[in-house]
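note to self: dont lose this again. the chain is below, predicted strucutre after it. 492 aa total, dont forget to put it in the shared folder this time
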Amino acid sequence: MDLYYKSTRDSNVYVTASEAILAGLAPDGGLFVPEQIPALSVSLGELKKMNYQETAYAVMKQFLTDFTEEELKECIAKAYDVKFDTESIAPLVKVDNTYYLELFHGATIAFKDMALSILPHLLTAAAKKNQADHEIVILTATSGDTGKAAMAGFADVEGTRIIVFYPKDGVSKVQQLQMTTQKGKNVDVVAIHGNFDHAQSGVKAMFEDKELAKELNEKGYQFSSANSINIGRLIPQVAYYVYAYAKLLENDEIEEGEKVDIVVPTGNFGNILAAYYAKRMGLPINKLVCASNENKVLFDFLQTGVYDKNRRFVLTSSPSMDILISSNLERLIYLIAGEDSEKTKALMEALKQNGKYEISDHMREKLSDIIGGYATEEQTADEIKRVYEKTGYVMDTHTAVASYVCNKVYRGDKKCIVASTASPYKFVKSVMTAIDKKYVDTDEFALLETLRDVSGTQMPQAIKDILDAEVIHRTECDVDKMKETVKNILSL
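---
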């Protein structure tokens, strides 16, 4: 059965999966959502026998119904290959009584690789399928990880260009170097004088700019997105939750049908929304736990039903979660609003105009599957130290937020999977300082070998690659100059 996609802000918008992937964002500024969330077509017993690639196909074929089996399997094969340093792609590691789903074994050592390894292939296949003759310009905002993963995925991919905006002082040194040293004749990265929310809002404004779209069209360009606002990035993320459950089953850690809890460090809400989709597909999930850092806008929303971004923006040691406008939450709002696009549009307009909105009690009742927790900077550091001293396992700051929430804030009677979203090497200064305060004044890059010795793990190739790499990208701009900067890059 063919599955079509609607806009969260206009249910009359009706497109295929490939058209949704190609567009990135709906014309009205809404996000594309499937007209229904399909059920898994294979049993849990069958899933436990599958490798990652087979699991990905079993999940994605249900959502991307206008891709042929050959097209989809080819995209999956190209994505999940030797770019990952482990054959299992997303290993599930048991530490004490918690299971860490390691999503950082790809080329840029963060969970964004899990989807951004396949998105370029889905996008180019979608372009051919829809006879798109324009050059696709990937326009993306990043809080640190999406940018590098997207640039690595799209570098020198024929028929595409990619422009990434990131907050100049809002990423780690490793994240910044990963982006500014990225090679590729079709790649540009720009540091903005602002935070991630400024970058994300500026990018969304360009997607909605009809005059700019006209100029792009005249020059033979069209925008698309690599952010999780693109449904082609969200759907591949569903697969790794299904895979994690299947591994628990295969390893006799759970009985078939036994429910588990999943804790996700959350910023833009895409990663936890993918887990929500997995639950709706039939995966036996009990609670989804949304873990926030000190930018706890989502925690407060889940507690009160009021989403309010009017607050102090905190720069934390988990910068990929330093977000006050969680774009993917709109997809969940649409679902709990009874798929009422007018209501969703009104709430998003309130957020844009007033920086806040409040959902009804009826909508809040539909959020019972999702609960929130948060960790302060001190608690995050303490969790890194606690787990290391007890088990020898070293985690990054984002994973530590989720681990703290899992073990110290929420601990039910179910087995608990924590989404481990980045390698500790990516945030080496924060990680090593948490383990021992004596490293507080040590240079970030000098600590890489120390982390290797402490953790007993190999330094990832992604880190080795940037140590002596040349900085290629030095462009900066003010927030109000983002559009002008894009036009200059594209010679409009």
